[in-house]
Amino acid sequence: MSFDYGQRHRVELELATKQASVQGVTKHIVVNIDLRQFGGSALTADIDVPKDRDEATMDAEIPITYVPARNTVFLSYALAWSEVLEANDIYIGVNALDYSGYPDCRGEFIASYEAMANLATKAGVNGNKMSIHTPLIDLTKAQIIELGLSLGVQYELTSSCYDPESSGKPCGHCDSCILREKGFSALGLSDPLIVRFAPSQLQAPYSP
Description:
Blueprint: E1 2-4, H1 11-22, E2 30-32, H2 55-60, H3 70-85, E3 89-91, H4 107-120, H5 122-125, E4 131-133, H6 141-150, H7 175-186, H8 192-196
Parallel strand pairs: 1-2, 3-4
Helix pairs in contact: 6-7
């Protein structure tokens, strides 16, 4: 399940669709929610995305790229679909280590949401308990990348940038780009997405 919520980095939706196809996902839903109606974030309003910040600055406060209650909204949709599917397990890729201080990426939030989910659903009340899984929550960016490589993730078909060009080329300067680069560097690797947009690659269309 992906979300078109009015984010400036909508290229991630196209790549999520490609990734779902590559991974053989049975059904991929893109849910439309217009969070630009509320704004309040550099990702959903005409607010500059912070650039070239060091990690100490990133950790100093909750950044303007935080989208109010985003993961709460996302999990609500996932919870509704899981009930329809009679599924007991929801997976979300939140991370609480190399991240930008988002409160809805913490284990306490996930545990509280899971408790609420089992009080607020027919499935939970009838004893068919829901579980929310966060397989990436305690991993560094390097460990996440390494895990993805072991599972065959094509990182040239992913995007982390908060402020990419229309072509999908990452800005290379936002918090997310900096943390992603840190992860690949820690493994002694070049980011395939950066390689994809290298000058020598721009003359011919990219084909996965």
